[in-house]
Amino acid sequence: MRRTRLTTAVLATALGLAGALATGPVAGAAAQAGCQYKVVWPTAGVYETPHPSSAVVKTKQAGDIVGASTCEGATYNEWSYVLVATDAAADGRGWMRAEAVVYV
Fold first, then answer.
1. How far is CA 16 from CA 6, 25, 99, in A?
2. pLDDT digits (tens, 9 = 90+) for 26-39
3. Residues near 40 by Cβ (< 8 Å), separated by ≥ 6?
4. Closest by alpha carbon to 104, among 23, 37, 43?
5. In whole angstroms, what separates CA 96 from the centre of its chain?
């Protein structure tokens, strides 16, 4: 019985360390805090979906900080988008052109 507990404790510790090594401190911090971006275009749209003809549900100005709890991106042809949280989108998920923002 005691050996089983010791083996379980050692295995759990080893797996925990392996997970910490796989994610690393930067990835772990990003996962906890999400992703934040600063708007660099004078005016940038927040789209309902990551598509150039999608409806603009909100606009942001240069210097605004935007972001989401997860770091997601999407592409459509040559356009790249990043996920931002917004109440203006039906599902709470808006998309901004990646060129319009810089990672903070």
1. 15, 14, 37
2. 333 434 469 999 99
3. 62, 100, 101, 102
4. 37
5. 12
Tell me the three-class secondary structure of the chain, residue by residue. CHHHHHHHHHHHHHHHHHHHHHHHHHHHHHHHHCEEEEECCCEEEEECCCCCCCCEEEEEECCCEEEECCCCEEEECCEEEEEEECCCCCCCEEEEEHHHEEEC
How far apart CA 59 and CA 50 sit, in angstroms, is: 15
Are 104 and 63 a contacting pair, CB within 8 Å? Answer: no
| Cα 84 from Cα 7, distance rounded (Å) | 44
- 65 vs 1: CA distance, rounded Å: 55
pLDDT of residue 48: 97
CA–chain centroid gap for 35, Å, is: 4
